[in-house]
User: Fold this.
Amino acid sequence: MSGDTIRLTTAQALVRWLAAQRVATPQGDVALFGGVWAIFGHGNVAGLGEALQTQRELLPTFRGHNEQGMAHAAIAYAKAHFRRRMMAVTTSIGPGATNLVTAAALAHVNRLPLLLLPGDIFVSRAPDPVLQQLEDSSDGSVSVNDALRPVSRYFDRIVAPQQLLTALPRALAVLTDAALCGPVTLALPQDVQTQAHDWPASFFAPRLVRFRAPVPHASEVAEAAALLRRARRPLLVAGGGVLYSEGGTQALQAFAEKHGIPVGETQAGKSALPWDHPLQAGPIGVTGGSAANSLAAQADVVIAVGTRLQDFTTGSNTLFAQAQVVSLNANVFDTIKWPGAALQADARLGLEALGHAVEGWHAEAAWSASARGLGQRWRDTVAEVVLSARARLPTYAQVIGAVQASAADSPARDIAVCAAGTLPAELHKLWRAAVPGGYHMEYGYSCMGYEIAGGLGAKMARPDAEVIVMVGDGSYLMLNAELATASMLGHKLIVVVLDNRGYGCIQRLQTATGGAAFNNMLDDCIGEGGSRPTIDFAMNAASLGAQAVHVADVAALKTAMAAARAARGTQVIVIDTTHQRVTAEGGCWWEVGIPEVSTRAEVRSARSAYEQAKTLQRL
Assistant:
């Protein structure tokens, strides 16, 4: 160190800068970055690895077992912190880096902060081609890290040490911006990581990070208010932006109560309003319930707050096609997806401004009363569904009911984590979310394999919570290695594996669109000379460090859940379920392309129904 400068390598400077970023919480200032996930290899072990080791007290390093799994854990950590804290992930230069692409896309779609630090090839090119290097005969500057460009909100390749002085503040601006939030990739060539530079000491001074919350523009508030004042049958649709807005859930509840407006929740927005609130209409959309979907079909104005309005929410643009939409979102791109009024703003600030602008206005009394009745009937339906025995094998609904019933004394401590397959639909309908964040669903990208790694990230963010991972056998087989990481780090998860012996969700979609059962269930995939695989999921989980048991029925599941809650260490409970029976109540149309020409009568019939449904679509 000399004067006002500090001589450090690029990697050392990067790590020190990350450790200096702070964020205010009710418990005081804490580190913005909760740690760095790392699998070392050539391209990051000598440079970034050395830097992380020297700063491990200030910026912890966690070793994972799969690069995609590490990134999923980091994403879940940020989601569980409502985007107020985050993590970084570093990998080697080849397959380690490309293993990040799926997770980066997941973070991008879900608008969640994730800092990716993959190693890269030599800037000097002296040893080219190095191990794992991809050579492009048309562009000498290309490396496999360029595959991360389309799935990153911000991408930079650090080709000189001093580039960090601009790249890091830019990266942080994206990671903490409500509209831009998503994955950032800083590709780190291995020679540049180890090069020294005289850095301004001020660059490493502790800094309290501020999160940008877009303030609503008066003219947009006025336009939205004018539309809303004419409404008689309004409906609020709560998306993930409500949860990510500081004070957003309180603002949503206050706005709904003041103006008598029922609330439907998207997958990302579920838990924004307590499940038993009188104005809680429940889940909306393709995986939604009968109450919210009925109200959506009758609403004259929909106030969409913090939602991307993706097809599962809108029923592929058919569910509330008759309504005008007030799109309140921090991202301007999301505000212009439907005709109506665009209001670019943070959820809390936008709702508060809109509330002032429509002071004295109230939804039609009969509409509010009807919504309350529909909401209560839906809650009664949920209570019946989770207790009903409708098949020889347990249904997903019965399993969900048993899991949640086991938390009778402290339901608010539970966080349900899931991502793909049949479970997102069943959980969206049936899980009773008591507090914000109690429902942790990755359904923007619907990524199989997120569940266990995501549960680990959620547990690291919320160590006092009981994190319950609900996962199908297909997703479990795709990525279960972070069970070993959870045991290694001492983080307890409860993982419930629902074994329906294949990809049951897609098999139902396959047959519903007229196709023959093919290549989804294990029994349909046995080749000549082959045999049906017998997979012992409990034994597999035990081999990864978990305490595991296979239960015979729902009664045994209840006993196992009670024991799992009382136990220490990760618990895995496996139960056989049916893939043929799911909750029939609720739901709406979802567009899936069906062949115009087929030899199968079932496909031709499905195509005819598809063409009829398309006539209801708002374009």
